[in-house]
From TrEMBL:
<protein>
    <submittedName>
        <fullName>UDP-2-acetamido-2-deoxy-ribo-hexuluronate aminotransferase</fullName>
    </submittedName>
</protein>
<dbReference type="InterPro" id="IPR015421">
    <property type="entry name" value="PyrdxlP-dep_Trfase_major"/>
</dbReference>
<keyword id="KW-0808">Transferase</keyword>
<dbReference type="GO" id="GO:0000271">
    <property type="term" value="P:polysaccharide biosynthetic process"/>
</dbReference>
<dbReference type="Pfam" id="PF01041">
    <property type="entry name" value="DegT_DnrJ_EryC1"/>
</dbReference>
<dbReference type="InterPro" id="IPR015424">
    <property type="entry name" value="PyrdxlP-dep_Trfase"/>
</dbReference>
<dbReference type="GO" id="GO:0030170">
    <property type="term" value="F:pyridoxal phosphate binding"/>
</dbReference>
<keyword id="KW-0032">Aminotransferase</keyword>
<comment type="similarity">
    <text>Belongs to the DegT/DnrJ/EryC1 family.</text>
</comment>
<dbReference type="GO" id="GO:0008483">
    <property type="term" value="F:transaminase activity"/>
</dbReference>
<dbReference type="InterPro" id="IPR000653">
    <property type="entry name" value="DegT/StrS_aminotransferase"/>
</dbReference>
<keyword id="KW-0663">Pyridoxal phosphate</keyword>
Length: 298
């Protein structure tokens, strides 16, 4: 809304529905871009090809699962076409790219979430990291787009954070470094346990994320079936993002996004989980994979 974009906006086909919902709510129309099988994010080659059509007014790139990858290529592609880039960094607050630079400096804006499921959890709300000029427009858009207390010439919404959530956020901020350190250590142990497990693909080249969750691909398998078997053994897990977001507006999902929506599994994270628990889950997952036939073609 703050950018005044009302046309077609490129978004990843493999993402949480909120990404496309924001585009719809701004009065624009999302179009799904194929996913990259290595980064699990928007594929640069597919993006460049789609921008060549000339009808895209903006690009929303998502830092999948809060990964903090170098986005130079995505930025360069958008700059080549003189198209604004907005980065959905919902799960990446507190993370850093491979060169150590903190998330929040890419595109015309990066947007982070402070939802209760995030490492920095204020309960609800979020933050926009952008230039002072754009922030002024954002503040107007989330205050009903009022002009001098009166209705203006554009639509807005009530996007203000409550004082209660702000107070929770201030308290949570004090603990954030410890929370991120703990979650990074836990994720590192998942990587150690799973990186050589046949049939599992773990994230690579992800920088230093805050690790809201630990996602991995069950190559050639149906993650929903594996989730059900884990649940039968007392292990909670999640499947992301199924169905693909593009299918929500009757678009034929790109192939890789469709494959990943069926084989992406998120394993438990949190202080309730001990290293013994992680080893148990890894061994159980190994046993399940050995008994689960391959049903999804790469």
């Amino acid at each position: 809304m703050a950018l005044g974009i009302r046309g077609t906006v490129a978004v990843p086909s493999f993402t949480f529905p909120a990404t496309a919902s924001a585009v719809f709510q701004a009065g624009a129309m999302p179009v799904g871009i194929e996913a990259n099988p290595q980064s699990w994010e928007m594929d640069p080659t597919a993006l460049r090809a789609r921008l060549g059509a000339g009808d895209i007014e903006a690009v929303v790139h998502v830092r999948s699962f809060g990964y903090c990858r170098n986005l130079d290529v995505i930025e360069d592609i958008c700059a080549e076409h003189n198209i604004p880039l907005i980065v959905d960094a919902a799960a990446a607050f507190g993370g850093a790219e491979p060169d150590g630079q903190l998330v929040g400096h890419r595109g015309v804006a990066e947007v982070v979430s402070l939802h209760a499921t995030k490492p920095f959890a204020a309960g609800e709300g979020g933050a926009v990291l952008a230039s002072p000029e754009l922030i002024s427009e954002v503040k107007n858009a989330i205050n009903f787009a009022l002009q001098g207390g009166l209705a203006g010439d554009r639509w807005g919404l009530n996007g203000k954070m409550s004082e209660f959530s702000a107070a929770v956020g201030r308290a949570a901020l004090v603990r954030l470094p410890d929370v991120i350190e703990f979650r990074r250590a836990q994720a590192d142990y998942w990587l150690t346990l799973l990186q050589d497990l046949d049939g599992v693909a773990v994230p690579q080249g992800h920088g230093a994320p805050p690790w809201q969750l630990f996602a991995c691909r069950m190559l050639g398998r149906d993650a929903s079936a594996i989730r059900a078997t884990l649940a039968d053994n007392g292990v909670e897990s999640r499947v992301y993002y199924s169905p693909t977001v593009a299918s929500r507006w009757s678009e034929t999902p790109p192939r890789m996004a469709e494959v990943m929506s069926r084989d992406m599994l998120s394993l438990p994270m949190g202080r309730h989980l001990s290293r013994d628990d992680q080893r148990y889950v890894a061994e159980l997952l190994s046993q399940i994979l050995a008994k689960t036939p391959s049903v999804v073609n790469e």
